[in-house]
Structures are given as structure tokens and as C-alpha cells.
Amino acid sequence: MQNYIPPYTISNKMLELVSEISEKIGKINSHRELESRPHLRRNNRIQSIHSSLKIEANSLSLSEVRDVINGHLVLGDQKEIQEVKNAYEAYEHIPDINPFSIIDLKKIHGIMTYRTVNESGVFRKGDEGVFSGDTCIFVAPPPQMVDNLMNDLFTWMKKSEGVVHPLILSAVFHYEFVFIHPFADGNGRMARLWHTAILYRWRNVFEYIPLESQIEKYQAEYYDAIAQCHVNGNSDNFIEFMLEMIWQILDEVIAQIRKSDSETSEYVKRILDVMEYDIPYTSNAIMQALGLRSKETLRKNYINPAIELGVIRMTLPDKPNSKNQRYVKQ
């Protein structure tokens, strides 16, 4: 029996977007723009996690998500807090994921849904539907079809590697995955993570491109594109939509890098060089590391500008002059 081949047609618009995206990625890669900015990489990773969870109705704010990831106490729904911890660990596995492996897919789903769902790391055993808010977009295939549909999808992906451009392949996978809806819960989070994992295999800069934040901004259009593809019987609309999302977010990342270049003084770069992530430092410890003698110089030239840029934070922001104040690189 011949394996299922996802239906789609390459349009001129898709080709133009693929070309322009490739050019933008080339510019970022050629100057190792993100590799030299760990604070931007970390902020983008946190943004990705917050946005992907927010799409699935997680109510934690960006700052709360950041605090959970940084190991700080957050008062909130324990399931939502666990979802943040799970997503962070899942995203940390991106470099190790084989996106063409169903075994890896189930393993990462187990991490993504740890202690939050009953069926974790296994395909669903019941019927499911895809909802946008309270509206059911469509009813997913029955559970007895999931194994064969997923095997067909991964077989197609393996055969298409090196033949279909990763920007197209990842979008086709994303749509087909959402259509099959293989898990009882966590399908949206997994679809977006796997999209990134496929693109990472092509260009590793995608590990820190917050594509999820762009999707969250256009969440209604995201679901509309999926629904239209169900009506049309192909993934063309969704491919074009996702390419446009990538095209747009790359502009934001490039602008982010330029802003970082223009605003990050040599003083801020120095303070970031002497601080490790997630370690609270006293002002005296930072002064010693920088070889400074004046606390006024430290505050005016180093700490205040770094806080304004969001690259370090105070542990006691409501008590800036407290003797127990510490500073953390983020």
C-alpha cells in the first residue's frame, strides 16, 4: 500500500518568501549575530515559551514565566507553572532532537506534558477535536488511525529531506500534525516546537528565533489558515501563512540586534562579561570583578544602564537601596 503524500502546491509567493527568508538568515549567520549575544538568545527563548503556552490559555505573564525559568518562587496555578518548566526543558533539547524520529517525538511530548496530562509520551486513545476558543475547527481522525497516519507523515518527511526545502517541509509537517492531532493534549505546543526543530536542522539560528511570539500575535489568522486548509484539502494557505510569520519575525530579530548594538555600551558589555546567568551578585562582588573603587561609577555607568536594557535585574526591585539587594544576569 502506497504511503500518504501530503497535498500541497508550491506557489510563486512561497518561492519568493523562501528566497527572502534565506537571505535574511544568511545576514544573521554571516555575522554570528545571535551567538555573540547570549542575553538576546535567552530572552527570545523565554518569549517563545511564554507565547506558545499563552496560545494554549496559560495565564502566566512573561515576567512570571521568566521567574519560573530562573528558579524563583511564583504564586500561581501549579499546573501552569509545571507547563513552563516542562516547555523550558523540552526547548533545551532542540539541538539533540531528530525531527524525523517518532521515538524522539514521543519522548519530547513526555517532557512537554510531564505531570500535567494522563496520556504523556503516547498517542491518544480517544477522539479529539481542534478548538479556537470555544469554536471547534474540526474533529480529528479517530484514534485507531493515528499510528498509520503518523508513520506515513514521518516516512514522507524522511523521503523529502534534501528534496523539499526545510521552510516548506516544516510548514507541511506543522499542518499535517495539527490535522492528525496525535496526542490527547499538547499538540499545538509540540507542533510549534517541532517546526523549530526541523528549521534548526537547516540553520541552527532558528533555535533562538521566537517564531511562537509571531504566531501568538496572529493567533486568529493562525487558526483561520488551518481551517481554510481543511476546507481546501491541502496545506497551501498554511504554508504561505507560516512563511510570512518567519519573514516578519526575522525583521524583528534583525531590529533587535541593531538596537542591542546601538544601546549596549562598553560598560554594559563588561558587566555582562563578569556575571554568570542566574547567580545573584552583590554590588561589592561586581565592583571587585570589574576592578572598580567607586559605587557611584558602578551604579551610573554599569548597573543602571544594564537594568534599563533588561539584561540584568534586581532581586528586590521594590527596595533598590536595600543592603540585601542582589543583581542577576538574565
UniProtKB/TrEMBL annotation:
InterPro entries, alphabetized: Fic-like_C, Fido, Fido-like_dom_sf, Fido_containing
Catalytic site: H181
Binding-site residues for ATP, renumbered to this chain: D185, G186, N187, G188, R189, M190, A191, R192, Y222, Y223
The keyword Nucleotide-binding is assigned to this record: yes
Fido domain: residues covered: 100-244
Important for autoinhibition of adenylyltransferase activity (site feature) positions: E56
The name this protein goes by in its record: Fic family protein
PROSITE patterns in alphabetical order: FIDO
Organism: Wujia chipingensis
Record keyword ATP-binding present: yes
Any GO molecular function: ATP binding
Xref: Gene3D superfamilies: Fido-like domain (1.10.3290.10)
Keywords assigned: ATP-binding, Nucleotide-binding
Superkingdom: Bacteria
